[in-house]
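Batch queue: ligand-bound targets. Current item pairs a single chain with flavin mononucleotide. No template structures supplied; prediction is de novo from sequence plus SMILES. Inputs echoed for audit trail.
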Amino acid sequence: MSVIEPILNRKSTKIFKKTEPISKEAVETIIEAAIQAPNHHITEPWKFFVMQGENMQQFYDAAMEFQKNRDISEEEFERMKVKMISKTMVAPTVILAVYSKNKNKTRGKYEEDILAVGAAIQNMLIQATSMGIDSIWKTGPVYNATEVKSALGIEEDEEVVGAIFFGENDNAKELLRKRTDKQEKTIWL
Ligand SMILES: Cc1cc2nc3c(=O)[nH]c(=O)nc-3n(C[C@H](O)[C@H](O)[C@H](O)COP(=O)(O)O)c2cc1C
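Prediction returned. Tokens below.
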């Protein structure tokens, strides 16, 4: 049993090829990996919103509504529109990993629950890598905008911790992984 291979092979994909969405079965396996993450007091503080194909339009419309309502120039609005179409809409599959407070488990602490969602997201990335699916974890104000949350049915007190994009890397844009050597980050006591 070795998990180090997908861990070492995972890298963030900036540009996705225009391909079909990943299969429902693959999405379900990735979410199965997510929900196995450790979570204190078994709060299971997560929900996963899957966006693929035509359903991405719903997100796009709400995101553009958010941009429209911001105090930005016409130029900036157009820039955001291009960015949204060229970067977000081309991703074959996006899963929003959402923090959702478990109302039946009052012992859950916000900080711990958010960390648990982060652990769930890492499980998703590693599982996807092991299946030959490329990915990236993205954040940004648009994902938690009121316009977007209400369009997708994300409750007010819920929080998008990550928008996880899945698909196939366009190798032309591949980035080199950069990490400080582990020796510099390790203190042996
Ligand atoms: C909480 C979090 C938020 C991130 N948000 C973004 C983002 O909005 N846009 C982006 O291009 N990458 C984002 N990333 C990905 C990082 O940029 C990426 O992990 C980093 O460059 C290291 O590259 P690697 O994932 O290939 O090791 C995010 C990563 C994390 C953990």
